[in-house]
Amino acid sequence: MQKIEHIGIAVKDLKASNILFEKLLGIPSYKEEEVASEGVKTSFFMQGPNKIELLEATKEDSPIAKFIAKKGEGVHHIAFAVDDIVAEITRLKAEGFVVLNEIPKKGADNKLVAFLHPKGTNGTLIELCQEAPTVAE
């Protein structure tokens, strides 16, 4: 693992949360994106080398909606940047971690992602992120 790629925060209202984080950080969001397959709309802030991802549910049965219903708004996950997500999944499975999706999927911000079950990581959902390969035209 290279570094913390971002911290994901579950929010009920992305528009209101964007305003709050713009005031807090003194900068605007640099990107908003919907990931329909996950039922989420995201907004990203970059402050120096640190990235924050705000996540709002777009479907009542999405993971973010379920998280907010159970725990309320707040830190949802910590994402780590990796060079080779497939190799990292293999390594972590061999170490005994439970991988929630063994085949990386497309996430927000041009990333391939996979998650580790929080029961094996002291209650914290861990996301692995790798830059998605660019497709030659």
TrEMBL record:
Residues 3-131 form the VOC domain. Keywords: Metal-binding. Transmembrane segments: none annotated. The keyword Metal-binding applies. InterPro entries: Glyas_Bleomycin-R_OHBP_Dase, MeMalonyl-CoA_epimerase, MMCE/EMCE_epimerase, VOC_core. Pfam families: Glyoxalase_4 (PF13669). One of its GO terms (biological process) is L-methylmalonyl-CoA metabolic process. GO terms for molecular function: metal ion binding; methylmalonyl-CoA epimerase activity. The keyword Metal-binding applies. Belongs to the methylmalonyl-CoA epimerase family. PANTHER family: METHYLMALONYL-COA EPIMERASE, METHYLMALONYL-COA EPIMERASE, MITOCHONDRIAL. This is Methylmalonyl-CoA epimerase. It comes from Cellulophaga lytica (strain ATCC 23178 / DSM 7489 / JCM 8516 / NBRC 14961 / NCIMB 1423 / VKM B-1433 / Cy l20).
